[in-house]
Amino acid sequence: MPSRSIPAFQAAIRQATSGQDLSIDQTSELIDAMLRGEASEDVVGELLLALRAKGESVTELVGAAQAMRRHMTRIPHHHELLLDTCGTGGSGSGTFNISTAVAIVASACGVAVAKHGNRKATSLSGSADVLEQLGVRIESDAQGVAERLDSIGICFCFAAKLHPAMKHVVGVRRKLGVKTLFNLLGPLCNPAGATHQLLGTSSTDAQAKVAAAIEQLGTTRSFVIHASDGQDEVSLDGNTTAIEVTPAGQSTLQWSPADFGLSPATAASLSAADPVESAAIIQHIFAGKPGAPRDTVLAGTAAALLLVGKVSNIGQGVTQAAEAIDAGLAKTKLAELRG
């Protein structure tokens, strides 16, 4: 590690250990050094654990996201409105890949989608894992991803491919084996620059921090989601709270299963042991199979359609999502994504 980086990391570790938040610029410079490979695994690990013990702050999220955005491979496109359904993960609910299915159904409803995601980290099946199981080529380079987005209106932005500088921190993250600052950053660093985000979070604390961070980073309109049953998705088991973030500020929405006109569904009824089972559930939904998984995807898609202004209320969103599935449009969109 270059000697000029050592004092900055040591000072930041002392600062975090004493309970003081790092500034935006300070965090940004430290993450820059990490992503350039200029910091040893030991000092990176020490800093990440100190931030975790203190509790990562909004300024640290913003600074880290700014640095990651500078290092990512960007996806050019012509869409003025672009949706992402990537969340933070970490809820531990063990459900199938709901947000991935929602992304495909939303695209089938005519919304341009750049789904950002990675292989499993805190879940049994990551979005990359299930899409690969569904036959989607996840390893496309930036040009291939851009061509897919422009030609069919949906693409998958594989984080491992489009955030190449993350190779410098993969080892230490694996060695630490706990959630760190980086686990909250994925949704804040969409390579295609999504204008609208349906962004699931695993706790009310993470929800508040991510909403504040995305407000500072800039968004056209986003819903930062957390459900009362602990899910990082729009849930039909209790209430779902969405913090709406626009350039004008924040407001709060809340939905119950009755608002969607759908039957309650527990997380247990949505479980998938691995990517194979998750893919099978998604294929069954797109084939028209009724039940809790379909209803949960309808609810999530309804929220996405409301977010982008395709519908004026959540009930209309459910109807439009159901029509897209029943007309075979979601199944066709998945086939196009397989390409």
From TrEMBL:
Glycosyltransferase among keywords: yes
Pathway: Amino-acid biosynthesis; L-tryptophan biosynthesis; L-tryptophan from chorismate: step 2/5
Keywords for the protein's UniProt record, in alphabetical order: Amino-acid biosynthesis, Aromatic amino acid biosynthesis, Glycosyltransferase, Magnesium, Metal-binding, Transferase, Tryptophan biosynthesis
EC number(s) reported in the record: 2.4.2.18
UniProt binding sites for anthranilate 2: 173
Residues that, per the record, bind 5-phospho-alpha-D-ribose 1-diphosphate: 87, 90-91, 95, 97-100, 115-123, 127
Binding locations of anthranilate 1: 87, 118
One Pfam family cited in the UniProt record for this chain: Glycos_transf_3
Record text on cofactor binding: Binds 2 magnesium ions per monomer.
Cellular component, GO annotation: cytosol
Cross-referenced InterPro entries: Anthranilate_Pribosyl_Tfrase (IPR005940), Glycosyl_Trfase_fam3 (IPR000312), Glycosyl_Trfase_fam3_N_dom (IPR017459), Glycosyl_Trfase_fam3_N_dom_sf (IPR036320), Nuc_phospho_transferase (IPR035902)
Binding sites annotated in the UniProt record for Mg(2+) 1: 99, 233
Required co-factors: Mg(2+)
NCBIfam families: trpD (TIGR01245)
Record's subunit section: Homodimer.
Protein name: Anthranilate phosphoribosyltransferase
Organism from which the protein derives: Rubripirellula reticaptiva
Gene name in the database record: trpD2
